[in-house]
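Regression test case RT-17, inverse folding.

Input:
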């Protein structure tokens, strides 16, 4: 009887032990990093499947650096590439009518596989300038049949002009000048001096263009460019935002500046999965990138002497959009509050509702913010008001911050400041 009891206990203990082991094995004890890797593997598997399902993508996959075939976790993309030749043909078909002026430089930025440039040349464009920062892609571009007879290759991304400009100021170099070499000089009201085409990974380039117009430097010393940007939908929302969206994450000071200085138009939409690296693409559903035509306005809102005044007015006044209009402008020009509450008749028609002490900058569309600026500009005491020295102090500080950013960035990544002319 004792032997039977011991045997029975051993059997029970064995069953319990096996049950416990199985229970432990089914518990997910992976670390957050392991979970991230699993998610990334799933993400990468979807990219792999997407390429394998499409014949035209399978043909080019071997020429794409592996770092662009994995999930991108950056909040702001640094590069973006088109990998669909069918889309490239459609893009060229849509922009070709705007390229009738032959005396200009036509560029592809983030050239990658050179799909847009190849199609441009096939459709009769004599010469295309390719800007490409990735060494692996540059090596592939040199193997194309039209290189170098119809293609000029630069080892910088023109959509990264803001960073390159900072580096130039930091170590007194001329990379921007070299990147823009050969661009014709033309009057502002003439035809475009250059056309820039390609995937735009973020809004840094357009912000830089706004500042370049304000300070009349770099690309705008040659004339007006036109841009055909393939941009993410969320970036377009920032450019096209309005107070009605009631979302100050999109409606920013840069939104106001962009809409005052640029004309823009959406030409078409393309599946986001045909651009690498992938970012925030759900497993189900097809998000889209937009082809947007962007051109500086023929008539700028103010004369050149007041461009910096307008820039500071919007940057400092708008800030996060929550600043009160009258309180802020009283700080700049004491006594202007009465004029704002009862604006002159020529300005009054631009206001959908009266300005009061509670009105915030973020509640007003760009046209009304511009009218506020004109009211201040026309004030008899404008030239002697605190606004002028405050603006000058801000511009000096802004320049210092730009230089500091260039210095820090330069220390982090020396490859960024290699000579542009080496290809």
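Golden output:
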């Amino acid at each position: 009887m004792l032997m039977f009891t011991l045997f029975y206990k051993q059997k029970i203990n064995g069953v319990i032990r096996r049950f416990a082991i199985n229970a432990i094995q089914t518990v997910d004890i992976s670390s957050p990093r392991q979970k991230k890797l699993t998610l990334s593997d799933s993400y990468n598997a979807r990219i792999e499947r997407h390429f394998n399902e499409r014949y035209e993508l399978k043909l080019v996959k071997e020429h794409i650096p592996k770092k662009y075939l994995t999930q991108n976790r950056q909040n702001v993309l640094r590069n973006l590439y088109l990998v669909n030749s069918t889309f490239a043909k459609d893009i060229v078909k849509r922009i070709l009518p705007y390229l009738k002026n032959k005396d200009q430089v036509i560029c592809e930025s983030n050239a990658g596989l050179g799909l847009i440039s190849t199609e441009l040349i096939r459709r009769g464009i004599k010469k295309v300038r390719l800007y490409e920062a990735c060494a692996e892609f540059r090596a592939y571009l040199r193997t194309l049949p039209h290189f170098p007879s119809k293609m000029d290759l630069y080892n910088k991304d023109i959509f990264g002009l803001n960073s390159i400009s900072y580096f130039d100021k930091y170590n007194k170099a001329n990379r921007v000048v070299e990147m823009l070499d050969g661009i014709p000089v033309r009057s502002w009201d003439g035809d475009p001096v250059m056309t820039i085409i390609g995937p735009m990974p973020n809004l840094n380039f357009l912000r830089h263009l706004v500042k370049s117009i304000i300070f009349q430097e770099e690309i705008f010393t040659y004339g007006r460019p036109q841009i055909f940007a393939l941009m993410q939908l969320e970036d377009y929302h920032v450019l096209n935002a309005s107070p009605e969206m009631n979302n100050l994450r999109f409606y920013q000071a840069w939104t106001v500046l962009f809409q005052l200085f640029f004309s823009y138009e959406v030409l078409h939409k393309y599946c986001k999965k045909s651009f690498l690296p992938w970012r925030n693409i759900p497993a189900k559903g097809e998000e889209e990138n937009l082809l947007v035509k962007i051109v500086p306005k023929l008539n700028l809102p103010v004369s050149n002497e007041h461009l910096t005044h307008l820039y500071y007015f919007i940057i400092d006044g708008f800030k996060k959009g929550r600043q009160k209009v009258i309180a802020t402008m009283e700080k700049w020009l004491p006594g202007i509050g009465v004029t704002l509450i009862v604006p002159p008749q020529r300005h009054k028609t631009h206001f959908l509702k009266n300005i009061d002490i509670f009105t915030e900058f973020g509640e007003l569309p760009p046209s009304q913010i511009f009218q506020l600026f004109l009211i201040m500009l026309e004030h008899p005491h404008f030239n002697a008001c605190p606004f002028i020295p405050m603006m000058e102090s801000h511009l000096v500080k802004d320049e210092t911050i730009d230089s500091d950013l260039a210095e820090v960035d330069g220390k982090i990544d020396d490859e960024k400041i290699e000579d542009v002319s080496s290809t």
